[in-house]
Design a protein that fits this description.
Largest sheet: 7 strands, mixed
Number of strands: 11
Strand order of the largest sheet: 2-3-1-4-5-6-11
Oligomer: single chain
Length: about 350
């Protein structure tokens, strides 16, 4: 059924699709913005979206994605003309039980919802840290279960850090670092990730900025966070982290010969949605479509007592943390073919078309 959806969508959006000759695979690292179901296959993980109404607008079932349909990684794969990447743990299980011989040739999704770029972030919830995601990738390449030539021809997508920054403002525990040092520690981990995936053959690397985390409905869970406006202190940390990410991209051509990096300015894109919502067909850019309490931010979608809106396409936020499929589609189009205010120095379409 998912293959049929893919064929129909590719036919209806040919202007976005390029030949997959130069990029035939996507490898994905990050958190719930990208997670396609890894946490579902992780029995020790309490961060889940494998129940209704998640997935209801596209897949018509829950897949472990933390939205009502496709993520940015899914849309980018469609634009490339390739199938959605399977979660690593699902692919690993299939190889181990013999239901498939090899790992998929269209890439793998390692992202785990709730994880951060700092090893300790939400580890008590059983999430897969980005360091562990890297180790999973390293093992596949080093054991020749993923061809290094495939990695060299692939696109790497990285998005992580929202959970680290949100957790900085949790009421229990006192942060041992001031905000600037905390952000620098986060950036050091991202830098190490890039170092290692480059050594494994990665040559097309996309770093996506965080969105305005201080505007998510879940800020209502934080004592002292404003509910009538975004949480300025949190967004300031996000902006500083995003600046550091862009600097990492700027340094790539010098530091990593033969590699090309792009920076996706997701923060600016989402703030534009919030500033002129009607232009993007949003009628609500404050509340969660699915949840309950203040801004729908006090209860996870699908939990007992949740409420759901009638038209998710009109909402920026699907649940207390995550955008709707409609928002993801708009972000994806900006990443794929947008101007330099959205993605720089080139778009993903240009990056993917580069020999």
């Amino acid at each position: 059924m998912e293959k049929l959806f893919l064929v129909l969508l590719l036919l209806s959006s040919r202007s976005f699709v390029v030949s997959s000759a130069n990029v035939s695979a996507v490898f994905i690292f990050g958190d719930s913005i990208f997670d396609a179901g890894n946490n579902h296959f992780n029995r020790n993980c309490s961060v889940q979206a494998d129940f209704p109404p998640y997935g209801s607008s596209f897949f018509h079932r829950s897949t472990g994605r933390f939205t009502n349909g496709r993520t940015v990684a899914d849309f980018i794969s469609q634009f490339l003309g390739i199938e959605f990447q399977k979660p690593f743990l699902e692919a690993q299980l299939a190889v181990m039980n013999g239901s498939r011989k090899d790992y998929p040739s269209n890439g793998i999704n390692f992202a785990s919802a709730g994880s951060g770029v700092l090893q300790a972030t939400n580890q008590d919830w059983g999430v897969i840290s980005i360091q562990q995601q890297l180790r999973q990738f390293q093992a596949l390449v080093q054991e020749n279960q993923v061809d290094k030539n495939l990695v060299q021809k692939s696109l790497i997508l990285v998005e992580s850090g929202s959970n680290d920054i949100f957790n900085y403002f949790l009421p229990y525990g006192t942060p041992t670092l001031h905000p600037g040092a905390y952000v620098q520690a986060m950036l050091a981990e991202v830098g190490n990730l890039i170092d290692q995936i480059y050594k494994l053959g990665a040559r097309r690397i996309a770093l996506f900025s965080l969105g305005p985390v201080g505007c998510v409905p879940a800020r209502a869970l934080l004592p002292g966070a404003p509910v009538d406006k975004c949480f300025g202190k949190m967004n300031l940390m996000v902006k500083n982290y995003n600046k550091g990410l862009e600097s990492l991209v700027d340094d790539m051509p010098i530091k990593y010969p033969g590699a090309a990096g792009v920076f996706g300015a997701v923060y600016d894109i989402v703030q534009r949605f919030r500033a002129i919502p009607a232009q993007y067909r949003f009628s609500d850019v404050t509340n969660a479509c699915c949840g309950d309490g203040t801004h729908g931010g006090l209860l996870q979608c699908g939990w007992e007592g949740f409420k759901i809106c009638q038209n998710p396409k009109a909402f920026l936020f699907w649940d207390y943390f995550h955008p709707t499929e409609h928002a993801y589609k708009l972000i994806s189009k900006a990443m794929w073919g947008g101007k330099s205010s959205r993605i720089r120095p080139v778009s993903l379409k240009t990056l993917a078309s580069t020999p």
